[in-house]
Amino acid sequence: MTGIAILDVALGLVFVYLLLGLLCTAVTEWVAHGTRLRARTLKAGIESLLADAKFRRVTEELYKHPLIAGLKHGERDPSYVSGDLFAKAFLAQTERKLAAIGADLSAGSFLANIDRIVEKYDQIKMEIYRKGQIVAQRVSEAEQVLEQLRQRERTLRKSGATAGEIATAEHQLATGEDVAKNAKREQDDYTKDYLGYAGSLEQKMGQLEAEQVCYRHVAEVLKSFVTVEGATIGDLEGYLARWYGQAMVRVSAWYRRKAATIALAAAAAAALLFNADTIGMARSIWIDGEVRDVIRRAADSTAGRCTPAEIRSGERPGCSVDELIQTIDARRRLPLGWHADAMPLARNFCPEGAAPRAVRDDSRRISGDPARPVAERAEAELRANRAEAQLAAACAPRPMDYLLWLFGIALSVLALSFFAMVWFDVLKRFVTLRSAGHPPREAG
Predict the structure, then answer these.
(1) Considering the chain, what percentage of its residues have pLDDT values greater than 90?
(2) DSSP characters for 23-50?
(3) What is the pTM of this model?
(4) Whole-number pLDDT of residue 249
């Protein structure tokens, strides 16, 4: 086994990895786009950055700011927000909070004022809780009094009370019903004005606590940045943008891990769909000098004149995936797919099947020749079928064949999950290395 031949086999494998890797890359990007993976990962990163992952109130308000809302595509959240935009939008949102408590965003007192926001949440929670207790108590007392008045009115009727006594009881009952209705209306107003969409007092308290935690977290972070009195608003924006940028490094790692999972699934599907068994492909390329030569020439041409973008788009003639495959299949079959001689059947690699394989191939050549007599072609077809049956019996797959096939599929899955552009770079390196070796001998 010469070094050049080994290099040609490696070059062929890398070229096949490139073709299938392009498919896996396209599938990964399609799934990521369809599931809004970038946008969802970015939003989760901002929620984590602001300690707002529980109720997401602060993040939702931030996404409604015109600077960020303008980045949306229809109903889709943006997949990228710059650090400067994040800082400006967050400071504008904080300024509204400060204005609500009578403070401002003056740089010199910003940290003290943001602490006031945190303290204000304590006051708001206490006010909402106290108001809720008062309203609930009024409703409860009104219902108790109303029930007592109803009971008294029923008792008077049963006891034969005078018409005046009954009229007085009915008047008191009507007054009690009005009081109960007013108490219930006050409770509804409280729910609408104080609880909003939270639904219950406990949920509202949880939301306020989450927002308070968020601003306390941001205040502590900014205090770690601001070490000099008199920092300007521009300084604060710079601090927030730098903090955001550092966090986005971690968010990018999240996205890469999620995309790698999708790529691994796409690679597994492609490897099984096309029977891309690395071991089987290597054997096919090694024993078939013609397909090895065709793949090498196609790889040389691809690496020399095509760019990754041109291969993916297919706009340049001779650089599309379909044209590359057709170039190879025009002379020899690409070592992919489910066919009789593919792994795990491995009939091409069974020494016992050499004789029936030769008979089968020769008989098929005769049966497919229209110049031959019909009887001769029919007899050749029968011989080919008998040879095929003998080949199947002589080269029945063994357990080791299946184990090797599974191992080859696993190798291909790992290789394809590295994305196509990685294999394009590897392909160019192999072509450069191969060009330094001995040129292949011309046939004939």
Answers:
(1) 6
(2) HHHHHHHHHHHHTTHHHHHHHHHHHHHT
(3) 0.62
(4) 92
